[in-house]
Design a protein that fits this description.
This protein is of the alpha+beta class. The chain has helices at about 5, 15-25, 45-60, 65-75, 145-175, 180-200, 210-230, 240-255, 260-265, 275-320, 325-360; strands at about 30, 80-85, 90-95, 95-100, 105-110, 120, 125, 130-135, 140, 365, 370.
Length: about 375
């Protein structure tokens, strides 16, 4: 096993790029412009509905529970990391609020100042996890460290510490002995990504893409697993996260594309009379492939969380414990299935990324047939 793939994780470039891009796009309240309505006239918030539904249910057992609101509360991003409990008994980790105001400049404070949306601080309020100003003429640019961003930082730290420790072990002991500990678990996965995903789909020039593919694979896998924990964040179920990953794949694919790839797009092997139809379709295809990556990961992970919460919510809908064995049984089955989906979605995203890169960078002959120098067999006369 070549240790250079472990050592490549020492470079924080890829993780820093993913982190910076996600922090830019993750917060839906990044820019609040124009006149902001007073909270008394604002529509009811989905997250507030989820919180109030559970709180009301705790005080009044006969009160109906809005399962949809509760589900969205658990899958969407927030300015605090909720652990357990509701109302005044809730236990949550406050996160840094970082906003830039057009009138007050840079503002930093803890999200605990909002008391889960029930209090105001320094002229700001939290409505539906969006920071609003009481001043209608004030523009707010939100750069806060939200729950999803905090988990992304945690994941980046886990990846960096994990693979640098594995690289250090290989550096000290070499690759002549059987792997032990963490090495024995992660080496088959890394070898699988290198040989069965990268080399099989990209070809002889796959080595320079292996660090990126490994980063994408383990970044998605670890966050999928963390999302299965009740107190974990639904990072891979955030479309902003999958959007950034797909954009990076789009950039990597097209920056490394060769002349055959671009020739196929702007001069496809078809009668020139069809070019006005085929060329626009080929250009659209450049963007639809990463778009499919974005939607597939987002939809599969989000759907799993919603199904589990909805199944458990059947107990409150029917208001009887007789339904609980069925609801909990099906929820447990979906949870076990989600463990497989966590690995499967990381594999599919990485596989398709390698496939897109390979199709753009592979050599082709005049007939458009793929050539791989490593697979050429000697011609016998």
């Amino acid at each position: 096993m070549n240790s250079k793939y472990y050592t490549s994780f020492k470079s924080p470039f890829i993780l820093t790029l993913l982190l910076a891009c996600f922090m830019l796009f993750s917060n839906s309240s990044f820019c609040n412009e124009g006149v902001q309505q007073d909270s008394a006239h604002a529509p009811e918030a989905t997250l507030s509905q989820g919180h109030d539904a559970i709180t009301e249910k705790a005080h009044d057992p006969d009160a109906p529970v809005d399962i949809a609101a509760v589900a969205f509360e658990h899958i969407l991003d927030s300015h605090s990391w909720h652990l357990w409990g509701e109302g005044h008994d809730a236990v949550a980790l406050p996160l840094p609020v970082i906003i830039y105001s057009s009138t007050k400049g840079l503002q930093t404070f803890s999200s605990s100042r909002f008391e889960h949306g029930h209090a105001e601080y320094n002229g700001y309020r939290l409505h539906d996890e969006e920071i609003l100003s009481n001043d209608p003429n004030e523009k707010i640019y939100d750069f806060s460290i939200t729950k999803n961003v905090a988990q992304l930082m945690l994941t980046a730290l886990i990846l960096f510490l994990l693979f640098t420790s594995i690289a250090k072990a290989y550096k000290n002991h070499g690759v002549t002995t059987a792997p032990k500990g963490k090495q024995s678990f992660f080496e088959p996965l890394i070898t699988f990504v290198r040989d069965d995903i990268a080399k099989s789909n990209i070809g002889h020039n796959s080595d320079k893409y292996v660090p990126y593919l490994l980063t994408v694979f383990f970044l998605i896998l670890i966050n999928n697993v963390l999302g299965l924990i009740p107190i974990g964040a639904n990072l891979t179920g955030n479309i902003a996260f999958t959007f950034v990953l797909s954009v990076i794949t789009l950039i990597v694919t097209n920056v490394n594309a060769n002349k055959h790839y671009w020739h196929h797009i702007f001069a496809p092997p078809a009668p020139k009379a069809l070019y006005p139809i085929l060329v626009p379709l080929e250009i659209v295809g450049i963007f639809t492939k990463p778009f499919a990556l974005m939607i597939r990961l987002f939809a599969n992970i989000t759907a799993g969380h919603i199904i589990v919460i909805s199944l458990v919510g059947l107990i409150f809908v029917f208001k009887t414990l007789w339904i609980s064995p069925v609801a909990v049984g099906f929820a447990l089955f979906i949870d076990v299935l989600e463990c497989l989906v966590a690995l499967l979605q990381a594999y599919i995203f990485t596989l398709l990324t390698a496939l897109f890169i390979g199709s753009a960078s592979a050599d082709h002959n005049e007939d458009g047939v793929h050539n791989d120098e490593d697979e050429k067999a000697p011609v016998k006369h």
